[in-house]
């Protein structure tokens, strides 16, 4: 019976791994995974500016106003127009670049073309005879449209280059001059398609392409990423995949990240305006309540007796402090380990739920959209991610205690098994050594 169960489990494990690996290697998932980290420096820069301009201390604000004048915050807030307020422009360029590299196309034209199509499809208003585009058209609120265009435009460009007649220049013409002419007809056809999309979008109640995407495709995904029950389900699958040795963040969170970034940006704008933050679940939320592996590591250092647990925990402590948990996931190991994997999955889900509850009732300040690096250690991470509220740092400390204490029974059970296995192996070695030759 036991052998049959193990055989079925291994079959399920291998089948699940193949499916998830296929998903994680899908080209659009790979493109998103490679492109989105490029947006992080701009969010960090914006976060620093946001914290300096809006630090939650009236004494600090009065001091700065006394030194630099009453409008000292305005130039700092204007820096956002070069950072997170044009986040969609950065994202579309990054994705178009990665998409072009995937096809081995020269990326400069697809990137510029993607940006041009995005601007063309944006809401253009005329004020006193001057055509204008509101900077909000380029913010993270339209990121889903930017991602779609960053994928579709380079795909169309690559397809058309290979399937429609192009203007061929003589071989004596330098490539830098010949290539733009070869791309002329594909670019023209893409703009013709964009004209059709713009015309159709204007006929809908939404008015623009980005608004239509946000109101149709984006609406259910935004609801999923903002709803605690949908988010808990996502967290469950992320950690379940990790327990199977698959990078769960790359499979699940790469899909949700654009919507979570939109939540972060909405919180940032509300924070700057002094309004109530509309979302609890943001892009920084996952890193805020997580890092369970690190606290399992602390529990191992406190109570474990098995040499392998002690050794791996010592090696994994410093990386774990900075949210790098791979040495522990693969070293303890957590993956395929019923003792530790169960805790790993359930504690992340419980931490996400508890954190949502304490933020919902106002006990802990919500995260304000500040783009804190995911490697920032706990307490400091919470302090920065909320714009300087001490309650978020304290809650991370509470989670640290809960995770560590809660890990002890699981670690102790696994440690006893390892000690038993070690003792059995030692007996077998001794018996083998004592056997007459």
UniProtKB/TrEMBL annotation:
Transmembrane segments: 36-55, 79-97, 141-160, 181-200, 228-246, 285-304, 344-365, 394-414
Keyword annotations from UniProtKB, A to Z: Cell membrane, Membrane, Sugar transport, Transmembrane, Transmembrane helix, Transport
Chain ranges of the PTS EIIC type-3 domain: 12-410
A Pfam family hit: PTS_EIIC
Origin superkingdom: Bacteria
Compartments (UniProt record): Cell membrane
Entry membrane topology: Multi-pass membrane protein
Primary location: membrane
Chain's role: The phosphoenolpyruvate-dependent sugar phosphotransferase system (PTS), a major carbohydrate active -transport system, catalyzes the phosphorylation of incoming sugar substrates concomitant with their translocation across the cell membrane.
Entry protein name: Permease IIC component
Species the sequence originates in: Lacticaseibacillus suilingensis
């Amino acid at each position: 019976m036991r052998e049959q169960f193990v055989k079925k489990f291994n079959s399920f494990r291998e089948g699940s791994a193949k499916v998830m690996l296929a998903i994680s290697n899908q080209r659009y998932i790979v493109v998103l995974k490679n492109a989105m980290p490029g947006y992080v420096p701009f969010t960090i820069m914006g976060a620093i500016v946001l914290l300096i301009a809006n630090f939650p201390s009236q004494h600090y604000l009065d001091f700065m106003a006394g030194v630099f004048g009453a409008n000292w915050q305005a130039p700092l807030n204007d820096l956002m127009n070069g950072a997170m307020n044009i986040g969609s422009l950065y994202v579309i360029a990054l994705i178009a670049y990665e998409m072009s590299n995937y096809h081995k196309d020269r990326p400069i034209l697809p990137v510029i073309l993607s940006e041009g199509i995005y601007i063309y499809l944006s809401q253009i208003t005329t004020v006193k005879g001057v055509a204008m585009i509101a900077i909000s058209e380029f913010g993270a609120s339209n990121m889903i449209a930017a991602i779609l265009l960053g994928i579709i435009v380079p795909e169309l460009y690559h397809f058309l280059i290979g399937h429609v007649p192009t203007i061929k220049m003589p071989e004596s013409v330098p490539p830098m001059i010949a290539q733009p002419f070869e791309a002329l007809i594909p670019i023209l056809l893409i703009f013709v398609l964009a004209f059709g999309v713009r015309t159709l979008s204007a006929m809908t109640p939404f008015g623009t392409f980005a608004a239509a995407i946000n109101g149709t495709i984006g609406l259910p995904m935004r609801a999923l990423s903002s709803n605690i029950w949908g988010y808990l389900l996502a967290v469950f699958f992320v950690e379940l995949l990790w327990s199977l040795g698959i990078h769960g963040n790359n499979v699940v969170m790469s899909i949700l990240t654009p919507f979570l970034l939109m939540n972060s940006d909405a919180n940032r704008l509300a924070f700057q305006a002094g309004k109530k933050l509309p979302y609890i679940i943001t892009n920084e939320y996952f890193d805020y309540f997580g890092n369970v592996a690190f606290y399992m590591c602390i529990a191992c250092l406190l109570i474990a007796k098995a040499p392998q647990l002690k050794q791996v925990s010592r090696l994994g402590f410093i990386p774990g402090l900075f949210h790098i948990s791979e040495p522990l996931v693969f070293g303890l190991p957590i993956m395929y380990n019923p003792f530790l994997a169960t805790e790993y999955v359930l504690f992340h889900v419980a931490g996400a739920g508890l954190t949502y509850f304490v933020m919902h009732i106002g006990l802990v300040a919500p995260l304000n959209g500040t783009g804190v690096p995911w490697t920032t250690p706990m307490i400091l991470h919470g302090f920065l991610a909320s714009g300087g509220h001490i309650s978020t740092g304290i809650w991370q400390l509470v989670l640290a205690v809960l995770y560590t204490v809660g890990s002890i029974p699981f670690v102790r059970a696994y440690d006893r098994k390892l000690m038993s296995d070690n003792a059995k192996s030692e007996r077998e070695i001794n018996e083998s050594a004592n056997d007459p030759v």
